[in-house]
Amino acid sequence: MTGRAEGPGPRAWTPDTLDEQDWLVPWSPGPPGAPHATADVVARVIHGLRHGPGLALVRGLELDGLGDPECAELCRRFAARLGAVLPLPEGPSADDLLTAETAPAVELSATDRAADQEATEREGDARTLDPHTDRSHRPEPPWLLGLLCIRPARAGGESLLVSARAVHDRLAERDPSALHHLYQDFHFGRGPDFDRVSPVFQQRRHGLHVQYNRYWIERGQQEAGRPFPPGRQAALDTLHGVLTDPGTVLRVPLRRGDLLLVDNTAVLHGRTGFSDPAGPGERRCLARVWADRPAGR
């Protein structure tokens, strides 16, 4: 464990220090009629994920004439060139097509919040999602998150991206006691076959590793039947403040045909609230894919 600042580097970015060319990759298909990206596109994405800011956005995939499931398959095929694509478990919470059919119109009671948060986690409504990392129903979170924009929202719905390394170093400099707590174990939900205990930050072979979802941490702690140790709640509050600081968050409006790829262990993601047309088949829709890091890398 270490609570020291790790210093400057391509992973420790903020919106002011990150150039668009560091993460934006124009789509370049192979031979005419081939739906596959060129080796250069794939190489640039891999470099951005492993040696750059931990994210890449491939802009301009051709989706005309494709239905939503076909777009999702295109997303999976691209991700398969980067890592081992993970099968999503059955059930609405892990759909590969993320849409928002309705938005809540009233304040929810405390008893309804847990079910509502399940919907929020799978982007089942139109409210803001604070920066977080994805989890899976396996012991470890996925390495790669891919989101292909099939239809953007009519208004809003920008992706929010945050460098875990930049957040870590800011805490190391300004509030090391909070960072110390974030290196301790937290419960990330409980239940049959789903006990997850992990620090928010830890040092691993590939460098700094982050795992964070405020809702699941608080739910896990509650289900464990124990209050947070002294200072732990304050540390989460401090972390939330840094994660939502406009100077920390890169805002990226996704266009149709944009494929956002994120190292889920190094970059946190979220989304602004949005509004959409009422008609079916017109609402915001993203295809999602998870993948593991290639063996030996």
TrEMBL record:
Region feature Disordered, mapped onto this chain: 109-138
Domain TauD/TfdA-like: 39-290
Compositionally biased spans, kind Basic and acidic residues: 113-138
Lineage: Bacteria, Bacillati, Actinomycetota, Actinomycetes, Kitasatosporales
Keywords, ordered alphabetically: Antibiotic biosynthesis, Dioxygenase, Iron, Oxidoreductase
Molecular function via GO: dioxygenase activity
Cofactors named for this entry: Fe(2+)
Taxonomic source organism: Kitasatospora purpeofusca
InterPro entries, sorted: AlphaKG_dependent_hydroxylases, TauD-like_sf, TauD/TfdA-like
Listed Pfam families: TauD
Top-rank taxon, per record: Bacteria
The protein, known as: TauD/TfdA family dioxygenase
Signal peptide: none
